[in-house]
Every structure is written in C-alpha cells, then in structure tokens.
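Bumping with the actual sequence this time:
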Amino acid sequence: MIHFFDTSLLIAAFDDQDAHHTRAWPAFTRHATGAAIATHTLAETFSILTGRRAWRPKDAFEILRANTESMNKVSLPAAEYLHVLEQAEALGIRGGAVYDALILACARKAKAETIWTLNARHFLLFAADLSSSIREP
C-alpha cells in the first residue's frame, strides 16, 4: 500500500510544538516506510518550518532529509502543473488551496491508496472521488 503525506501532516509530525503533533507523528512513523510525497512538499515544509516556525534552516533541512530520504518524490511536468491550475480556476479555488491540488495530483500519479493530511476539507474540494483515501490521523 502506498501512503502519501501532505505538507500539513509533515509539519505537525516534525514540529513537537505543533498542536497536532501527538496525532501526526504516530501516523507518520507508522506509514513512512514505502511512502511518497510531492517534491513541492519538501519546499513548502522547509519554507514553513524556517519561516512561521522560525527553525534554523540547517535543522529544517536535516529533519526533512532524515525523514523523507527513502520516500518516493513525485513531480509534475509543466503540462500537468498547468492542468491542475486550470482545474483550480474552473472550481474557483484561490490562494494556498492550489498547493493541496498540486499535492493531490502527485498522489494520483503515485497511485497512492492513502493520502494523509490535516487539511481534508481542502483536499476534498479537488478530489471528492478520493474521499475514501483522504485521511486525517
């Protein structure tokens, strides 16, 4: 079974000061082996940890590297990226929710059977057909 993690889950799992850490970390450690993430998630997680969370860049990089090294990293070519943006425009999606749509496109590409997030509501806007796969810990 391929598990896929989004940014919100990784941030809560890695930051022990996060309000959702106690539920995110066990879900992450239980399903990390053989899991996949979007390459975009690496940058978004690093950005949030070093920005809003004020982590040192070295610490953010090390926790990302150590915990995602063995995971499959999934990217989208430009045409697929633009297709996701076109879908977002058609659905009237704005702002940061578009990143969730990009992560979902990568999860589909990876053929993920379970998509772990702390933001299921946004994910379901783009992928009601994946409602049985989108999970919050």
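The tokens above came from a reply further down the thread. The mean pLDDT is 95.
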